[in-house]
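My main concern about presentation is that the manuscript never shows what a single data entry looks like. Each protein is reduced to its one-letter sequence and a matching series of backbone shape codes. For the editor and my fellow referees, an illustration may be useful. For illustration, here is how one protein appears when written out as sequence plus structure tokens:
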Amino acid sequence: MPSEAPNHVLEFPGGYTRSVGPVIGRFLSELRDGRLVGVRTAAGQVLFPPLEYDPADGEEVTGEFVEVGPVGTVKTWSWVPRPLKTHPLDRPFAWALVQPDGADTAMLHALDMGVFQEGAEPPKELRTGMRVRAQWRTDRTGAIGDIACFLPEVTMITSPTRLEYRLQPGRALSRFLDGIAEGRILGHRCDVCGEVIVPMKGLCSRDGVPTTEEVELPHTGTVTTYAVNNLPDPRAPEVPFVSAYVLLDGAGVPLLSLVSGIPADQVREGMRVKAAWRPREEWGKTMNNIKWFEPLDEPDAPYDAIKDFV
């Protein structure tokens, strides 16, 4: 039998030593000091990492060094779901081309997206165009490994938030809430413009005059404008949900409320709706007596009827 071929080894005892020259040397010295620098070409571009010659035309660079980063933009990336022993991180990460702010070229380096199990799919936050920042090692020696990796810039935080307050209603609002507690929606009619204002405010914001004439409004109305919400809200039945301005029949001012009983993508301007009240035993002096407005089995209102409120 033929013997197995022997392993061949190429080794430089003590390591391979070379002169890095003034351009690369300056780049590595700046890395050791925790800074990123590029070099300007005769054409005015900033090369990062620096090179002795402009790859576009072969001309020598100017020798003018420019500090760049440490924040940059991901130009492209490749996800590594199962790192090798020789990789810079021991968990899934991305190789990314990062172009630091102030530079015209990019550098390939590891991008740490957090802790993931081996084999994990790339996170949805990983994308071309995301902003990242260099993460420095504390024991820097003047090598590219002085940058441990890049990390995503912090663009969002979640903080516990709670605000307690007490609303002391005035005479008009108190009267309006008394009506809601009785299952009635009350408004004030303006003596000048004739519009019915709901909730009652005690004055007409259009004419600036006091209002006292009470008008009981029906529990039906028309959606004028609306928004689809994708963040959870304890008042909403599910996500996504719709908040809308509803113009009650006979009113001159729309009322803000939730709209339910129909998929969010089917809510529309001009849709006819009615108030959905909670069980009477749950009523109090609060607008929460009305859970939301639900669709009416009626044709949509014409645009001319709501155009002044859209």
Summary: The mean pLDDT is 92. Residues 21-32 form the longest helix (12 residues). Residues 7 and 13 are 18 Å apart (CA to CA). The chain is about 10% helix and 30% strand.
